[in-house]
Amino acid sequence: MTFYFQKAMIPVGSQQKPLLEYIVRLLKYHGISKIVMLIGYKGQQIVNYFNNGDRYGVEITYVWDNPEYSGNGGALLNAYLNGHFEGARHILVYYGDILSDINLTELMQMHRGGGFAATLALSPNYRVAVGVAEVEGNEVVKMVEKPPLGKPVTIGILAVKVDSLAYLKELGEEKRNIDIMGDFIRLLLERKQKVGAYLTNSFWFDLGSTEAYEKLDPSDVDHRFAFLFQEA
After folding, report:
1. What is the pLDDT of residue 146?
2. DSSP string, 76-110
3. Is 2 a member of any domain?
4. Least CB-packed of 59, 74, 137, 226 within 10 Å?
């Protein structure tokens, strides 16, 4: 599908609006009106659709991928080095393939109030995608189909103190392919920086695969996200 579509532009819900529109509307709903979109592959589709953000009541600027850096961390570093976060003390990072009704206001309040270098939105309800066997010796004694993992998982949404991006710059001096969770957050923890955990039972759905996309119920999307379109 993404041969034709930029992944964040895949249509969802019965109105077939792009996934990214739900994200933009959620940001606006929670008072976040300055948006920096980090774009690369088929990014012109995004620019053509959202333009400067006026029709959504937000201000959108775009940062194209820099071949010098890759990965989502590299894209974030590119925006930081080009001054797109100047004047801000904190930023919200929201992955473009995540559909969620998370309370971003609460997340940012916890982040700022806790003095965290970064705060991760985490879901405590994630279920593994396969059945799990309980084994005694060489005998299966119990099967549990898709049980809860038992540990909170990241959902592709986090708050970051802008000063903390200096660690991302440090990573950029060592490597070119940088992952936000695997590299940046890991380094913050290694350097004894405070990383907050915002546990949420909010709906979230990772649209990172065709299988996941086919499981997304349009009527469920319409019901859950009607609040974003009340003024539309």
Report:
1. 75
2. HHHHHHTTTTTT-SEEEEE-TTEEE---HHHHHHH
3. no
4. 137
